[in-house]
Write a structure and sequence with these properties.
- There is one protein chain.
- This protein is of the alpha+beta class.
- It has one domain: Creatine Kinase, Chain A, domain 2, CATH 3.30.590.
- Helices cover 46% and strands 13% of the residues.
- Strands 1, 2, 3, 4, 5, 10 and 11 form a seven-stranded antiparallel β-sheet that branches.
- The longest helix is centred in the C-terminal third of the chain and has 23 residues.
Length: 387
């Protein structure tokens, strides 16, 4: 059960996961297929699938629908799971006149126009946080990887912060918001950091310190449950996972699975080092913060600080090294093929780059959204989409 304010001195048991299983959560934009603007369609979708559907869920705004997997052994299983649920969502969309896209922001939809989902938790969140919560018109990819203990989850969280820019740049899909090019690869990251418990995780010494920190926040009434901690990387004690939340939602299912393969392989490789008592170099917290900013600003063209003395290297070079490093683990996990799908992102551009190319060619943000919608549908159903 999640820790709440009524049991503020209770320990937080970590549900051990004996294998590095994965779970994936996708936040999907709901579109008006004529205008390409966001539209409030989640209530209609949930009414048709049933509010207790295990893999189709509501989100903060009614212009969002969340699609989640069950517990999956590998990336191929996660892809099949996501594809089956997305096909169900698309079928409903075709019936009721809704479209869909994957991107971390919408280029021209206004947060002021969005309807909050009629849910007590969401309403309490908006009432408490106010403007930062109301403007939270963003979409992300969350990947859970099973780990064996809370101690290991904290060690992995610390180690994974070095790779935040790698994951963020590959997934970056939010260059536009509020009718303008923000100049960033990931505007979502900066919008989300406005929330009081979002952003980079605190560097904790062990799982005991994590429990003490959560208890302190709950006793101080800063949060009601640990579900209200929205760090870029966080332990999830109930699920027995480390949850990577830093990614923008990539714009195709193939890219989602490529990122999932990288994340699972990276977590397992770092976990292997942990289990064998091998030293893992962890960058200082201020360098982690600077590197995240560089990825937010410049995406794949960022130049990263690579050591605590100020050495630096192009992110593209660091990504090539990382992919080579985790490839043996990907092979053992059965996701080497999906890991290879990162290469087209490096060659042809991440979503933020493709969106800018469409805008340069058309000078139309509507065309950008239509391109995103077509990309996703074509990738899901394996055939080109006619405009």
């Amino acid at each position: 059960m999640p820790l709440t304010s009524s049991d503020s001195r209770t320990s937080i048991p970590f549900t051990s996961s004996p294998r590095p299983t994965i779970g994936v959560e996708l936040e999907v934009q709901i579109l008006d297929p004529d205008t390409m603007n966001l539209t409030a369609g989640s209530l209609d979708i949930l009414e048709r699938v049933g509010n207790d559907h295990p893999k189709i869920k509501q989100e903060l705004t009614q212009s969002t629908i969340e699609v989640i997997t069950g517990i999956c052994e590998n990336v191929a299983e996660a892809r099949a799971d996501l594809a089956g649920t997305l096909e169900e969502v698309y079928q409903i969309g075709d019936e009721v006149g809704l479209g869909f896209a994957l991107a971390a922001t919408h280029p021209f939809a206004q947060w002021r126009d969005q309807k909050i989902f009629p849910n007590d938790r969401y309403q309490m969140l908006v009432d408490k946080i106010q403007w930062p919560a109301r403007r939270l018109l963003i979409y992300g990819l969350h990947v859970h990887v099973g780990v064996s203990s809370g101690e290991k989850a904290i060690a992995l969280s610390n180690a994974l912060t070095t790779y935040i820019p790698h994951m963020l740049a590959l997934s970056a899909s939010s260059p536009f918001t509020d009718h303008e090019d923000t100049g960033l690869a990931s505007a979502r990251a900066k919008i989300f950091e406005g929330m009081p418990t979002a952003g980079l995780p605190f560097r904790l010494a062990n799982y005991g310190e994590f429990q003490a920190f959560m208890n302190t926040l709950i006793r101080a009434q800063a949060i009601k449950t640990i579900r209200e901690i929205w760090w870029d990387i966080r332990p999830h004690p109930d699920f027995g996972t480390i949850e990577i939340r830093v990614c923008d939602v990539p714009s195709t299912l193939t890219e989602v699975c490529a990122l999932t393969a990288l994340i699972q392989s990276l977590v397992v490789s770092l976990g292997d080092a942990y289990d064998n008592g091998n030293y893992v170099n962890i960058l200082r917290a201020w360098i982690v913060r600077e590197n995240k900013w560089r990825a937010v600003r410049n995406g794949l063209d960022a130049d990263l600080i690579t050591d605590n003395r100020g050495g630096h290297s192009p992110l593209r070079t660091e990504l090539a090294t990382l992919i080579e490093k985790v490839s043996p683990f990907a092979e053992k996990l059965g996701c080497l093929s999906e890991l290879g799908d990162l290469q087209p992102i490096l060659n042809e551009g991440a979503s933020y780059e493709r969106q800018r190319r469409v805008y340069e060619e058309t000078e139309s943000l509507e065309a950008v959204v239509r391109s995103l919608s077509n990309e996703m549908r074509s990738d899901l159903f394996g055939k080109p989409v006619t405009s």
